[in-house]
Design brief:
The complex is a heterodimer of chains A (207) and B (307). Chain A has 207 residues and is α/β, with parallel strands linked by helices. In chain A, 32% of the residues lie in helices and 17% in strands. Chain B is mainly beta. Chain B folds into two domains: 154 residues, Immunoglobulin-like; 91 residues, Immunoglobulin-like (Sandwich). Classes of the chains: A alpha/beta (207), B mainly beta (307). Chains A and B meet through strand 9 of A and strand 11 of B.
Chain lengths: 207, 307
């Protein structure tokens, strides 16, 4: 009897929680709060950054599309430029253990040092909870949250969906565009685009 | 030849003066291995049927092939990009889905020969429930229609080149580039099919989505959040999947709601998150449970005001 009640209670809870668990935030909607641990050992809560712009950058250092932006220095340039202007930049690693891009804290710290990466912090999400919360599909994928806690951009880093670094100088960078527009009080011209890259390597994914 | 081989393989002390100093256990095994390698290389160079146009790629091979063994001025010819992929690896459809990138070809063709666009075989659904891609595994032939002008030069063979960029993935992705070439004689008389590859071309054609039967009636409309596709096929359709031809119109990972009726089906397709404007036409491939695949290209009626 007790087990049946427990089972029913769990089902009921899941039924209530499902819309929260399974609906990804769209542009214009509130960014779901999260707590995550970074490679520097600290814990970060999104709610603590109300009043600031927050960038979430999904990352897999083995993916050719991520490498396009890191080996060219493009991503590091963006991180430096925007964190200098007060933006909080979180690199997010949602690769499952054993999958491409999975990093231990030490490995990620070494990688960031070697690549001169300059996010505020690299959030380690091997269970994929943060990834699923935002329905991150590719690496790279960028989500931008404004100081009011609303998602103002969700999509690709730029408009050339290739793995060729030679395309970067000719690309419109959606991240810089959205931050510039929002910071100067203008509407974001391209608030969403198809994110391009490798699929995020969640637990259970074989591709 | 055999005697020389035997001599090379005799114990070290009975060889001719060879001061071979190495830690290899037995000199004769090294010698016979080298000899065998030499023979194999000679064979491959001189007598192999290795096609000059095949390119090894990461986890597979890629060939440029032609349906006919020659080109006839003023006539069409079908070319093919033939991918053979190792188990588990895939390439992508024209709409790759949530991740990935489709193959792109840049042709280098002689004067008078032109190539059209890739005719995409019916794709498979790949990936997981949350990240859905569209593409191909195994043996894939991408057909490309080509044409020779009436005045194309017949004096020398036509050198066809194709620079192909593609992405091949399994649990990780590898961008690939291949430079393919194919030389075909140009002959005034009608070309005959190349028997060696004709079955592959026939199979690839059978894998192309077919035009929907003339008796089928489609209609599509859009709501704020979905496309609704109605099909009157004259008979019930219990199960079907819609593959959207254009990126960023349909949410690839959202379940497609199918309602079957005695005359066909109604499919509700959630719009992609990044779709910000109205869509004029819904294009794609409808694949039935039997595997039959039909081309869909239907105008989208906007939502009446107030709905």
């Amino acid at each position: 009897m007790k087990r049946a009640v427990l089972a029913l209670a769990t089902l009921a809870l899941l039924f209530v929680a499902a819309p929260i668990l399974f609906s990804a935030p769209k542009v214009g909607e509130p960014a779901p709060d999260f707590t995550a641990t970074a490679s520097n050992g600290k814990t970060y809560h999104l709610a603590d950054y109300r009043g600031k712009y927050v960038v979430l950058e999904w990352h897999n250092n083995g993916c050719p599309y991520t490498r396009k932006h890191y080996e060219s220095g493009n991503m590091q340039r963006l991180q430096k430029e925007w964190t200098a202007k007060g933006v909080v930049w979180f690199t997010v690693i949602s690769s499952a253990p054993g999958a491409q891009g999975y990093m231990t804290a030490d490995a990620e710290n070494s990688y960031m040092s070697k690549m001169s990466a300059a996010p505020t912090a690299a959030l380690l999400d091997p269970a994929g909870d943060l990834g699923h919360l935002y329905d991150a599909k590719t690496t790279p994928q960028i989500v931008i949250i404004n100081p009011q806690g609303t998602v103002i951009y969700d999509g690709a880093i730029d408009d050339h969906p290739t793995s060729d670094p030679a395309d970067i100088p000719n690309s419109k960078n959606y991240v810089s565009a959205a931050l510039e527009e929002a910071m100067s009080g203008r509407p974001v011209d391209t608030p969403t685009s198809r994110p391009y890259g490798c699929s995020v390597k969640y637990p259970g994914s074989s591709h | 030849m055999e005697r020389r081989f035997a001599a090379m393989c005799m114990p070290a002390e009975s060889k001719r003066d060879l001061a071979v100093k190495h830690s290899f256990p037995c000199a004769r095994y090294r010698a016979s291995f080298l000899c065998l390698t030499f023979i194999i290389i000679c064979c491959a160079l001189l007598c192999g049927r290795e096609p000059a146009n095949a390119a090894p790629i990461s986890h597979g091979t890629l060939d440029l092939i032609a349906e006919d063994s020659s080109i006839a001025p003023g006539h069409a010819i079908t070319l093919g990009l033939h991918f053979k992929l190792e188990h588990g690896w895939h390439i992508y459809w024209v709409n790759p889905g949530d991740s990935g990138e489709p193959p792109i070809v840049t042709w280098q063709l002689p004067e008078g020969i032109t190539a059209g666009v890739i005719e995409w075989p019916t794709p498979q659904k790949l990936g997981t429930s949350t990240i859905v891609d569209y593409g191909y595994e195994g043996d894939v032939l991408l057909l490309v229609p080509a044409r020779a002008a009436a005045n194309v030069a017949t004096a020398k063979p036509a050198q066809l080149g194709a620079a192909v960029r593609f992405l091949i993935c399994r649990e990780m992705c590898i961008p690939g580039k291949a430079q393919l070439s194919l030389t075909l004689p140009v002959r005034a008389q009608a070309a005959s099919p190349d028997g060696a590859v004709e079955p592959m071309f026939a199979a690839a054609r059978a894998h192309l989505p077919k035009p929907s039967p003339a008796t089928w009636k489609y209609s599509a409309r859009e709501t704020k959040s979905d496309f609704v596709l109605d099909l009157n096929a004259g008979h019930a359709i219990a199960k079907a999947i819609f593959f959207p031809r254009e990126e960023s119109q349909v949410n690839n990972s959202a379940p497609q709601q199918l309602v079957s009726s005695p005359t066909g089906l109604k499919l509700t397709l959630e719009k992609a998150d990044e779709l910000t404007k109205s869509v004029a036409r819904l294009k794609g491939v409808l694949v039935l449970q039997s595997g039959e695949a039909y081309i869909v290209d239907v105008p989208v009626r906007p939502t009446p005001a107030g709905r």
